[in-house]
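COURSE: Structural Biology Practicum
ASSIGNMENT: Worksheet 4, Part C
STUDENT ID: 0417
INSTRUCTIONS: Below are two proteins. For each, the amino acid sequence is given first, followed by its structure token string. Answer the questions at the end about the second protein only.

PROTEIN I
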Amino acid sequence: MSQYLVLSCVKIQNANSIAGFTWGFPAITQFLGFTHALNRKLSDSYGGDYPCELTGCMVIANKADNKVYKPKGFADVEFLQSKNPPVLAKHKSNTPPIIEEGKVNLTVSLVLELDKPLSLTLDKINKLEHYIESLCRSMRIAGGSVLDIAKVKLLSASTEEQDNVMLKKIQRLCMPGFVLKDQSDYLAQRVESIFTSVSEERPQPILSAWLDFSALKSVAEPKLKEQQTEPDEQTDASWDYEKRKGYLVPIMVGYKAISDIYDAGQVECTRDPNIPSRFVEAIHSIGEWLSMHRVHRIEEFIWRYYQHDEWYLCQQTSRKTDEESLSVIESNQSQFDIDEEIINLF
């Protein structure tokens, strides 16, 4: 039996737009962080009545409006910034600096996975849905304020026929929207395809391959004349944009440790001085936006936490295949530490 909690069309104001070396949409870690925070609040309030945990989250983007502008017609876009704290009379001689913060107003739908199904009456289901909605309105998602939630629904299925009905209900609640799919295998394939053109003395070009998914490239198609087999310097060409499969985007999917684990209280100014801490760096990969009508199995699109040694990842793998998934990551480096790759270039 499968059971999911659907948060339909959640309007968020001033969410974090910068995620690692990418910008435009919050990182997956922020949505899983919200899932974990909601799970803790729910457990504290109704731990005995609802003995379950929220173990994963599917992210569907309905609308995103980044707060950017162009200072000139052909210039790059820049974030709209404000000076915090605001300039007061006493600050006129020393204006406070601007710390760059990317913000986005967005509407997302979240499908939260329950680790085990709940057997509840209709009254208890309605009570739970109203309570979760009130909790979400008082929380933050990706650093942004929740303005409105269209609907909160608890859906379950125990047979294949019920699974199909539940899938259609989830699609109706989340459309129009695009779901984020992990496509880290594409990065490994891209690395393999360009590795033959790079000297073996240089490091494996993972950074170059990753940047290819965010670059808009043009390809020249030579116009060969009659009886001409190879182009030369005088051959005309037509330029077309290079097309790739799907709407692929670079994303941030977790962290990798760069230090040992320090005991509680050993590192100053940590958020929680009562737990051990560790220094980490961002891990990046490739994702793909797919229309909701292309979703056939909800569990394949659920992002879940996974931790092993120095890896702290968000993955779209079932709990049974976590060990296999990590071994693939470590072997082909389809997810990588971008700072380490930049250092290797020099």
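PROTEIN II
(use this one for the questions)
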Amino acid sequence: MGRSTARRSTRRTVPEGDGRRSRARGRARRGPVRAVPAVLALGAVLLTAGAAVAYWRDTRPPVTDDQAADVTEAVDAAGRTAGPGASTGTPSAAVSPSPSASPSPKTSPSASPSAIAIPATGPGTFVTARADGTTVGTGGRVRRYKVLVEEGVDIRPGAAAAEISDVLADRRGWTQDGTDSFRLVSTGSYDFVVKIATPGTVDRICGAAGLLTRGEVNCSVGTDVVVNLKRWVLGSPEFDGPIHEYRALIVNHEVGHRIGHGHETCPGAGRPAPAMMQQIKGLKGCVANAWPYDEDGDYLGGPSVP
């Protein structure tokens, strides 16, 4: 009886160390099996991320010239020879750019918010755009003008001058009247200058003539067409169009003052707003428009504003 019990006990007894090894072998056998799903899951995540990146690369919108471009040059504030037709100081809320842009930068909100920085103020000194003396228009009176950009502004004077010259040469612009031509110059006498300046500098120049621009709008003072950088870059919330069209409105409105045109208002609901209307103050039922003439050569005017 005693010997039988001893034999049974011997067969059941397993040394403690051997038990640990056995359990470890079991875990080792199970370990790779559990790891396989984890590896597969990680692979799926990486494949999904790669597909997402590829999709983004294929579908993101390209950077346009309007988003990348810069614009403008300014003019020095000391008026030289004022030509006949130089007007008195006029704040021009209606003429400001739209962003974008122009888009051309060309920045457009006609594109997207511009990458051009808009400092609150600047030194008040300007860089003059170089010019080759090219004349646009066939009218008898040739008006000489300069384009300047305030120092420290992220806009090339030559690019701004080219854009302004293109606006003045457009068949819908002021050369359509057959009596006005324009020549961009960089030296000598001039009839007017176009200055692109920071909001603070605009306020100083315009304020000296008793005009209140509040860091927001453009103005005409003596022989100076003073363009607010904020408007040139961002446009106007009232102007539904690409930034280069809004810049055309700025140029056409201010140059219109230079050649003797006063402010006009909306001629009727649904009709094009006159270029001489202060469109930034509201369209009064008209449709935003940058040009004084249409494609057929008809003047897009409205009632005069006293």
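ANSWER KEY EXCERPT:
Q1: The radius of gyration is 35 Å.
Q2: The longest strand covers residues 141-150.
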